[in-house]
Amino acid sequence: MLPARVLAAPAILAAALVSAPAPATAQAKDPTSFASDADVTAQIAAMAATMKPGQGFAWQPLVRDGETIAALEYWKTPGRPAVHPDQAEYAIVVAGAGTLISGGTLVRPTAVKADLVEGSDIVGGTTRILAPGDVMLIPAGVPHTFGITGERLVLLGIKLPTPRR
């Protein structure tokens, strides 16, 4: 006959296995797209360095999730007044200074592509002064344009599709 301690060993082992933490399972890959402050600063500097003389605007994706892109917009000259018929525009000023004129009526609208109508001017819009940290959400269909005060205006922007009703 086996000693009691040998007979008890399987029961002790079984109890230990039941109470032991389960082995770590493979963790799902984090789908988050991320850019640090250093990444943003470096990308702004790279955009400035690659702009050609006379080039007034540059656009560069920063982070993305499939079709959804948050991009840096680097403005050296004012943009043309525009409307995005089916997209809201959310933006944060990350560097420089400028103005936002929004609302009112777009003068001489011309469809440039399916998601962009440009005009020559905006009549009756509201003017806002822009500085780093300012946040804006321009609804789909609202005329808007950015002016530049100083050397540049840098925005981090994303277009948000309007839900279909």
Distance between the termini: 80 Å
Radius of gyration: 27 Å
The biggest beta sheet reads: 6 strands, antiparallel
Elements, N to C (H/E): HHEEEEEEEEEEE
Helix and strand composition category: alpha+beta
Mean pLDDT: 87
Strand % is: over 45%
What share of the residues lie within helices? Answer: 10-25%
Q: pLDDT under 50 segments (min length 5)? A: 1-19
Overall 3D form:
globular
Instruction: Tell me the number of helical segments per DSSP (H or I, 4 or more residues long).
Output: 2
Please count the beta strands (DSSP E, at least 2 residues each): 11
Features of the shown structure:
single chain; 165 residues; alpha+beta; three-stranded antiparallel sheet; 18% helix; disordered N terminus
If you had to describe this structure to a student in words, what would you say it looks like?
There is one protein chain. By secondary structure, the protein is α+β, with helices and mostly antiparallel strands. It is built from 2 helices and 11 strands. It has helices at 4-19, 37-50; strands spanning 57-65, 68-75, 82-83, 87-102, 105-107, 110-113, 116-118, 121-123, 126-130, 135-138, 144-161. Strands 1, 2, 4, 9, 10 and 11 form a 6-stranded antiparallel β-sheet that branches. The chain has a 3-stranded antiparallel β-sheet with strand order 3-7-6, with no helix packed on it. A two-stranded antiparallel sheet has the order 5-8. The longest helix has 16 residues, at 4-19. It is globular.
